[in-house]
């Protein structure tokens, strides 16, 4: 987990837990979160309970945690209202038509690349990057 500022308080801790769950890229067990968490067991449990109660996280039948519906709804709203993607979409479509390949639109986010749009080509090759995925920023 990332280092938070002491002034971030409980909200900062909760956001760190959300980031950690997302970074696993799959549903994650409490024990796995505890291994990478700087928080005591009771604190982590309390944060997970609060995030679950608020539908920011979901608990699967096997007891694993994953990103919840409320978080997805917020992410979609942010994407629609603040993202470069809707503005750039006509250019992404034009580029895809011109080159006949899949086109990705990404923006820098804290030194990493955040994929914010993707237009698949009609060919049979599929790229693995997905909208919302984060990757290292390098050439």
Describe the structure.
- It is a single chain.
- The chain has 139 residues and is an alpha+beta fold.
- The protein has two domains: 6-72, Winged helix-like DNA-binding domain superfamily/Winged helix DNA-binding domain (Arc Repressor Mutant, subunit A, Orthogonal Bundle); 83-136, no CATH class.
- The protein is 47% helix and 17% strand.
- The strands form two sheets. The protein has a three-stranded antiparallel sheet, covered by helices on one side. Strands 1-2 form a two-stranded antiparallel ribbon.
- β3 (103-109) and β4 (112-119) form a beta hairpin.
- The chain is elongated, with a radius of gyration of 18 Å.
- The chain starts with 8 loop residues before the first helix and ends with a strand.
Main β-sheet description: 3 strands, antiparallel
CATH fold node name of the largest domain: Arc Repressor Mutant, subunit A
What is the rounded Rg? 18 Å
Let me know the CATH homologous superfamily of the largest domain: Winged helix-like DNA-binding domain superfamily/Winged helix DNA-binding domain
Look at the helices and sheets and give the structural class.
Answer: alpha+beta
Overall domain count: 2
- Percent range of helical residues: 40-55%
CATH architecture classification name of the largest domain: Orthogonal Bundle
Order of helices and strands: HHHEEHHEEE
Mean pLDDT, as a whole number? Answer: 87
Rough outline: elongated
Number of strands: 5
Beta-strand content bin = 15-25%
């Amino acid at each position: 987990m990332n280092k938070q500022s002491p002034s971030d308080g409980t909200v900062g801790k909760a956001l760190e837990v959300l980031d950690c769950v997302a970074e696993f890229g799959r549903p994650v067990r409490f024990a796995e979160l505890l291994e990478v968490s700087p928080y005591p067991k009771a604190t982590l449990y309390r944060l997970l309970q609060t995030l679950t109660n608020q539908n920011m996280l979901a608990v699967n039948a096997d007891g694993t945690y994953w990103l919840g519906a409320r978080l997805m709804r917020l992410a979609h709203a942010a994407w629609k209202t603040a993202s470069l993607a809707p503005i750039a979409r006509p250019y992404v479509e034009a580029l895809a038509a011109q080159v006949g390949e899949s086109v990705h639109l990404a923006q820098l986010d804290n030194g990493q690349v955040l994929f914010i749009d993707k237009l698949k080509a009609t060919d049979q090759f599929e790229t693995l990057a997905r909208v919302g995925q984060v990757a290292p920023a390098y050439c």
